[in-house]
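[job 0412] stage=complex_fold ligand=copper (II) ion status=START
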Amino acid sequence: MAEEDIVVIEEKTYQQKTQDKLNKHPLDPLSIEEINQTVEIIKAQANLGKELLFETIVLREPAKTEMLNYKPNSKISREAFAVALNYKEEKVYELIVSLDQNKLLKNEYIPDVQPAFIFGDLNMNFIEWENTLKNDPDFIAALAKRGVATPELVMIDPWPISNFGNPSEQGKRLAIGRCWLRREEGDNGYARPIEGLSLILDLNKNKIIEIQDFGIVPIPPEDGNYAARYQDSFRSDIKPIEITQPEGPSFTITGNHIKWQKWQLRIGFTPREGLVLHNISYEDKGELRPIIYRAALSEMVVPYGDPTNDHYKKQVFDSGEVGIGKCANSLELGCDCLGEIHYFDAALFDITGKATLQKNVICMHEEDYGILWKHTDHRINETETRRSRRLVISFIATVGNYEYGFFWYFYQDGSIDYEVKLTGIVNSSAVPPNTQPKNGTLVAPQVVAHNHQHYFNVRLDMMVDGLENSIYEVDTVRDPLSTENPHGNAFSIKKTLLPEEENFPRKIDPFAARYWTIANHSKKNYMGESVSYKIAPGENLLPFHHDDAVIMKRAAFMTGHMWATAYHQDELFAAGNYPNQHPGGDGLPKWMSANRNLQDKDVVVWYTFGHNHIPRLEDWPVMPVAYTGFSIKPSGFFDRNPALDVPPSASHCSCDEGQCSC
Ligand code: CU
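[job 0412] stage=complex_fold status=DONE, emitting structure tokens
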């Protein structure tokens, strides 16, 4: 895989800027200027009316075949893809523009879909939108019935309404407003759920169209504050830890291209997926070997397990219904990441399409990770130890009450880990005093956090040493008792080729130590086997919902763990392009019904992993990080341990006869 890039220069001359533009890589995310240009072209040429709001404005990535033949200075046309909503006409459009030609290439009305969440109108941002709802007289009256006389201290969180087939909801862009009450400005409002009060919001009309009152429940009495200013004291026995890299980090960055030791990859970012990694490859004996062409979170969903009031409708697709990249934090040195950090900004946009720069969205740094490998030859009293180091690329998103950190880790032995860190505030509701909830945990008096799960699907456009890849399921099995296995101790590998889409999805089987390999039959390792990488599950599970529950169709990707499709450029999102208010059936199940061949083909694997969250008292009022994820590891990709060439660490200690002095 050839790589090419410009050098980032802090103080750019005019000539350098011109050169930057000439050398822009075709996979670079849209710049501020390109986002604004896209919107200008659409407004001038698409004739979609004035009341136009933007859900998506992203790079339309060039065709893979074109990219694989890309050479520095090749001319590849630069295009943008947008989804826009005329909120007066209630119509959604997909648009493609050519940025080179300043021209609209596609303008298509997409019927029967709803875009991801957009709040407000041309003159109103989210806070202003929330304030307009709080001034609704019927809402004020409903609050008064509950003894709430301070609507200004109410928080209204918009939640997706799901799709339970209610005819009155068809064709409308709706959300459910769920309400909490702050005791004072700036305290944790999630400590005081206003239970039984749900607002049906028409997002196109920016108003409450129905107030659903399931009955009054007293508002919980206690504070649940976590902010430093609310703490009486802090523990005093923490000494500083300083991470210093006096010679700087070991990575080099040119534009969005990263080289770290033997790894090379390219950074991207979209408002829906957040972090996108392109062209992940590893240098082996002088050859840059491709592993993954494109990797990103494809979808996520959080289904809740409480049947009361309208809590059964809580099933949020934070990526497809909200936009996990749009929710990205600006990260701060010393808090979210530690050490020698490089930040990448993200060019995003507001609902009117105006480009905005989100500073410090992606954090990249190195971490010491303990021992990479070690052996002591006790006969000659010789120890060889190598310390492990990993490259960390991450971003953190805040979605209402919750935080998600998305972390990619690259290791010196060719392994990759993907990890999601879950933190923030558990979604809270209220029950009357002396009530024990069945489907949740009382985390404070009258405050219940419902049982729920978090599912993530990561799309991995694999390219293990080339495009022609095949997928195997590998189980470890007990060999039958026989003359070859008379002592009953033998166990072996059962490897099954999965040659068609109908062979998927597959499920984890921890008792078979199951994993999956993506192999290239045309490339052999030192021992003559096809080179491969494996998908190694971490924590995982299946939904507890019944098979005919609405969410099982809407988020079919959580009903299996390993999915696979033949590559198609437009198949990016596991639950389809428009999951918001969608009845289900789109995305993976729809595409895989074609039963395309996956043997020696350009395959895409989609790995789903879930985290079961039975809330604990310790999760309140803010949740210590929970971790979940999976690994992508070389499995006969290299001829031997590829990290033999990691040098011994400079030793600050000398040891003799087992006694060390430092
Ligand atoms: Cu949770």
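Confidence is low (pLDDT under 50) at residues 1-16.
[job 0412] exit 0
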